[in-house]
Amino acid sequence: MIWLRSLFFNVALYGSTVLMCCLMVGSLILPRRYMLHVVHLWLHQVEWIERTFGNITYRVIGREYVPEGACIIAAKHQSAWETFKLHLLFGDPAIVLKKELLRIPIWGWYLGRSGMIPIDRAGRAKALSAMMQAAHKAADMGRKIVIFPQGTRVAVGASKPYKSGVVALYQELNLPIVPMALNSGLFWPKNSFIKKPGVITIEFLPPIPPGLPRAAMMERLESELEAATNRLTGQRN
User: Fold this and answer.
1) Residue 60: enclosing H or E segment and its boundaries?
2) Could you give the CA distance from residue 31 to residue 104 in angstroms, rounded to a whole number?
């Protein structure tokens, strides 16, 4: 039964995404704020598909820890699921993502017009400078800046080191960091055809204030975010 539901889910998700991208491609010439309405429309459609075909819903804990205006959201990344929720959670986030995604036909055009923060992982100093310029622009607009501090999806129970990009943003922008824990990998596992029904939890943790030394910030971010994630996924510390 789960396999059959997963089949319907995947066909509906990818079929509707291709259809939506093609039918709404004309929105790319509209001002960005109007184009974002199309993005939100598609994401609400994805949410409907999750509920209808996958019996997947979600809840949010600790929303009061997310301040108004600009801040840095340091989010765990276990699944494609959370990438579909960032605009619904934050309205108009600026997401740090790999530059290669912008080259995907049509899909990449939407990412570019949405004002994301692309990073060329092979570009080193030049790439970091470009990321900071885009991040400053987003912060000046009062947007949430979302970064996955491990730089990639990490399966439940696996571990990856925290990368320096989150530190660079923290020191450059002088903004608080809100850790975002979740357990999406239990229901939408990395690179898995099977989608498991259930309630995904997103938990925002108390913000880390700006101005901490580099090592202290990283230690606090990693320890608190990993502990919350382990609790949500039922993993031992």
Assistant:
1) strand 56-61
2) 21
Q: pTM here?
A: 0.93
CA dihedral 143, 45, 12, 61 (to 10 degrees): 60
CB atoms within 10 A of CB 181: 24
Which DSSP helix (H) or strand (E) runs through 61? Answer: strand 56-61
> In this structure, how many other beta carbons lie within 10 angstroms of the beta carbon of residue 98?
12
User: Which residues face 73 on adjacent strands?
Assistant: 146, 178
Closest to 66 measured CA to CA, from 95, 96, 39, 93: 93
The β-bridge relationship of strands 198-204 and 177-182 is: antiparallel
Give the pLDDT confidence score for residue 123 in this predicted structure: 65
CATH number of this structure's domain 57-233: 3.40.1130.10
Query: Do 115 and 93 contact (CB within 8 A), yes or no?
Result: no
**How far is Cα 55 from Cα 65, in angstroms, rounded to an integer?**
28
Q: How far apart are the first and last CA of the chain?
A: 33
The pLDDT tens digits of the residues spanning 99-144 come to: 888 888 888 889 889 999 998 876 667 778 888 999 999 999 999 9
- How far is the C-alpha of 57 from the C-alpha of 48, rounded, in Å? 9
